[in-house]
Amino acid sequence: MGMPRLAFNAITIGAPDPLALADFYARLLGRTVTTKSGPAPGDPPEAGFAKIASDGTELELNFEYERRWRTPVWPAQPDRPFATQHLDIQVDDLDAAVAHAIAQGAVLAETQPQSDVRVLFDPAGHPFCLYL
């Protein structure tokens, strides 16, 4: 039997308010939130699911409610929640992209380990990188 077809096409991000986080990334990336659903019965009003569909050239981004959300700490610290992944976003003008991200609600990290990369945090506290 041969290898089955496997295609990587989406990333799902857990968040305490997935609809708001989807709106942030839509503004940041200049894309559209294509799917939104509210909370399941018994969940708080900020629960739900949202999607930024792919145009065929980029990954689809999904955002789902995480009931036990704890904001990650970056860089990692002992006995604190840490990010297990982050988004890397290529840009052509790092300073302009950082200014745009901050205007959308991102926060610049204090630690910046590389001159051609900027680490920021989205409104839920996930780190993401803008890079040349």
Can you give a write-up of this model?
This protein has about 130 residues and is of the alpha/beta class. It has 2 domains: about 10-65, 2,3-Dihydroxybiphenyl 1,2-Dioxygenase, domain 1 (Roll); about 85-130, 2,3-Dihydroxybiphenyl 1,2-Dioxygenase, domain 1 (Roll), CATH 3.10.180.10. Helices cover about 15% and strands about 25% of the residues. A 4-stranded mixed sheet has the order 1-4-3-2, covered by helices on one side. The termini are far apart. The model has no long low-confidence stretch (mean pLDDT about 95).
Multimeric state? single chain
Strand content: 25-35%
**What is the terminal-to-terminal distance?**
42 Å
Quickly count the domains.
2
Low-confidence stretches: none
Secondary-structure element order, N to C: EHEEEEHEEE
Give me the CATH fold name of the largest domain: 2,3-Dihydroxybiphenyl 1,2-Dioxygenase, domain 1
Number of DSSP E strands: 8
Roughly what percent helix? 10-25%
CATH architectural designation of the largest domain = Roll
Pfam families: Glyoxalase_6 (PF18029)
InterPro entries: Glyas_Bleomycin-R_OHBP_Dase (IPR029068), Glyoxalase_6 (IPR041581), VOC_core (IPR037523)
Protein name: VOC family protein
Domain VOC: 7-132
